[in-house]
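Lecture 7 notes: from sequence to structure.
We start with the chain below.
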Amino acid sequence: MNHEAYSDAYVRGILSSTKTIALVGASANPARPSYGVLQFFLQRGFNVTPINPGLAGQDLQGQKVYASLQDVPHAIDMVDVFRASAAVSALVDEILQLRQLPKVLWMQLGVFDTEAAAKAEEKGIIVMMNRCPVIEMHRLHM
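Predicted structure tokens for the same chain:
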């Protein structure tokens, strides 16, 4: 997969088929981008599960926060990553341990890991890198 350019149809297909999102790196700080993305997804009717070990057990925007993906009690369509690129490899290892793999691994703006992406893609997971789904939804008028 060429992660330098994604067609609009490809991006639209991912976003239109996603219903449940695990937001890794969710923040309780309204000034952080992950806070705004969580709020946007919830307002659009997505089922969003915040992941942050420092906030585990708390509620964030009305959603229970989990420490890790392993703790989430339901299937996940998309893992949205608000972590540094250096954390992605370990996150992919965690994802590949899930009973049911997510359909999509989405890395936010500035987040890249081509080796981790290839590892996820080998298991059938669609990977997006260096894109924000909220920006893409606005751009595609979704």
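Points to note: The radius of gyration is 14 Å. The helical segments are 8-17, 33-43, 88-95, 114-122, 133-139.
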